[in-house]
Amino acid sequence: MRGLRLIPFLLLFGALSWAQALYLGAGAGAVWERRAPVAPHKEWFHSDRPATSFFLALPVEEGTLFRVEKLDLPRDVSWQGMAWEARLSGWTAGVDYFLPGVWGQALVGAGVGAYRLDLAAKTPPEGVEDTRFGWYVKVGEWFTLTRRLQFAAEVSYHRTNHAGQPQLLTASGALVFKL
């Protein structure tokens, strides 16, 4: 059983020796939900809680990264006429492409993932919390600060298969470390 735990580390070590670089990033930002059930009168509802993300990316080839990201997107849901604070906690995998940018490197990316809806309640109602498939697209720009440190400014659009087909737009900033 302990041998099975070593497999992810060996795969990561092998990928690092092949790629010769690894990008680690952490960021936060704001979230807007299109036609949120808790604010039906607004086209875009802004959440007052921040979104967070952490990612690991490996270069596939020049100008292309494979990114695995853990993110938490705040979302309020309506259940039986009541508003509940919640979050979409997702694991995504995607590909980022870099292009010449205005001040840095422009980024275009897309991917898929599993998004879990978690309610901020001690005893949430049955059948509300679940994990569903989703996808995202993003654009942004990465700015070089030092040889190993970059700042990433990104705008992402996430869509999941939860009830109501939520559509979330995030604007975030992140620090990216190149190892």
Automatic annotation (TrEMBL):
Protein name (database record): Outer membrane protein beta-barrel domain-containing protein
Source organism, top-level taxon: Bacteria
Annotated InterPro entries: OMP/PagP_B-barrel (IPR011250)
